[in-house]
Amino acid sequence: MQTVRQLLEQKSGRVLVTVSPESTVFQALQVMAEHDVGAVLVMEGGDVVGIFSERDYARRIVLQGRTSAGTRIRDIMTSKVVYVTPDQNSDQCMALMTEKHIRHLPVLEGKTVQGMLSIGDLVHATIQEQAQVINQLVHYIQSA
Question: What pTM was estimated for this model as a whole?
Answer without folding.
Answer: 0.87
